[in-house]
Amino acid sequence: MINCMFEKKIKNKGASIIEIVIVLGIFAIMASSFAVVLLGSFAGMLRGGEFLQVENLIQEAEEAIISIKKRDFNELIYNESSVVNSNGYWELSGEGDNYEEDGFLRQIYFYDVFRDANGAYVEEGDAGASNDSLSKKILIKISWQSGNKNLSIEREILISSWEYVW
């Protein structure tokens, strides 16, 4: 009887191969799930950084255009241009010019604004539409590539010259 008990203890010592395989399988599933979550969060952080850069480029363009407008609304003569800081003040760089930095392309488009007889904004071809020479619609477009995706964000602003004497 003592020999039987001794043999049972020896037989029950350690883990069987099946138990080890099951534990390793569970560990592999948990580790891969953790890796997916970790990689997803890194991708989200990178994308968040890209959107922060885009927002900075848009704000810079808005501030530059407003600065140019305040100095002289008549400088807004282009259809497409970029802004540059020259000698401490903003100016338009010329027709068809764009700005590219770190893979981000900034395009700024200038459009005429049309109004009806009541002063409401209307499309150019609408009946009764007349050009409001004291207003401009500005479209700021930022384009970039993130991984294998081409992304872009656009923002429109409407500016007017309020220095006109009626």
Please outline the major beta sheet: 6 strands, antiparallel
Shape: elongated
The helix-and-strand class reads alpha+beta
> What value does the average pLDDT take?
82
Strand content: 25-35%
Q: How many domains make up the 3D coordinates?
A: 1
Structural descriptors:
166 residues, alpha+beta, six-stranded antiparallel β-sheet, two-stranded antiparallel sheet, 8 strands, elongated
Describe it:
Strands 1, 4, 5, 6, 7 and 8 form a 6-stranded antiparallel β-sheet that branches. The chain has a two-stranded antiparallel ribbon with strand order 2-3. It is α+β, with helices and mostly antiparallel strands and 166 residues long. The protein has helices at 2-11, 17-71; strands at 80-81, 83-86, 89-92, 99-101, 104-115, 121-122, 130-146, 149-160. The chain has one domain (2-160). A hairpin with a 2-residue loop joins strand 7 (130-146) and strand 8 (149-160). The radius of gyration is 32 Å and the shape is elongated. The protein contains 2 helices and 8 strands.
